């Protein structure tokens, strides 16, 4: 499993913060969170 080590702020369509990550995050979690936001879901799966 590859890990991403960065700082991310996940925003909804209005620019409100839905979550953030500092440190290691499995790439798959990042992809699933971004996909959920892009689909307009009310929450992210890995908050």
Automatic annotation (TrEMBL):
Top-rank taxon: Eukaryota
Gene Ontology cellular-component annotations: chloroplast thylakoid membrane
InterPro entries: TxlA/HCF164
GO molecular function: oxidoreductase activity, acting on a sulfur group of donors, disulfide as acceptor
BP GO annotations: cytochrome b6f complex assembly
Family annotation (PANTHER family): THIOREDOXIN-LIKE PROTEIN HCF164, CHLOROPLASTIC
Protein's name according to its UniProt entry: Uncharacterized protein
Organism the protein comes from: Brassica oleracea var. oleracea
